[in-house]
C-alpha cells in the first residue's frame, strides 16, 4: 500500500468513528436511543454532520413519515370508507399535511438560521398533529402505527434540537 493510500484510509476511519461517537452521544440524550441511531445511520449525510445536521436528518424522517401517512390516507379515502371513517380520514389528511407544509419547513428554517427553539416547537407540533388525527376516530383507527411512529421520531427530533439550545 502506498503511503498516500494508507493515509487516506486512516483519515477516513477517523472521520467515520468520530461521527459514530457523535451519533452515539447525541442519541443517548433522546428518549429512544435505538430508533435515533437507526435513522441517523441510514442517512449518508450523517457521516460528516454536526448536531444541527443530525437534527435536520431527523426532520427529514418526519417529512418522509408524514408523506407516507398522507399517501396511505388518500388510498383509504379512495376505498369508499364509512361516513364516520371518511370524516376522520379527511381530518387526518389535514393534520399530516400541516406537518408537511408547516412543521417541517419551519423546523428546517429555524435550524438553518440557528434559531433552534422554533424547531422544538415544530417537532412537538408534529406529534400533536398525529395524536389529534388518532383521536378523530371514534372506533378502531387504521393510523395507530402512524401516530406512534410520528410521536417517536418527533420526540427524538425535539431532544436532539434541545441539545442546541
Ligand atoms: C411524497 O412522496 C411521493 C411519492 O413517493 C413523492 O413523489 C413526493 O414528492 C413526496 N412529497 C414530499 C413533500 O416529500
Ligand atoms: C398517539 O401515540 C402516542 C405515542 O405512542 C400515544 O401516547 C397517544 O396516546 C396516541 N394517541 C392516541 C389518541 O391514541
From TrEMBL:
GO MF annotation, one: enzyme inhibitor activity
CDD domains per record: CIF_like
Domain (Pectinesterase inhibitor): give its ranges: 18-160
Q: Output the SUPFAM superfamilies linked to this UniProt entry.
A: Plant invertase/pectin methylesterase inhibitor
Show which residues constitute the signal peptide.
1-20
Q: Which UniProt keywords apply?
A: Disulfide bond, Signal
Top-level taxon of origin: Eukaryota
What InterPro entries does the record point to? C/VIF1, Invertase/methylesterase_inhib, Pectinesterase_inhib_dom
NCBIfam families associated with the record: PME_inhib
Family stated for the protein in its record: Belongs to the PMEI family.
Q: What is this protein called?
A: Pectinesterase inhibitor domain-containing protein
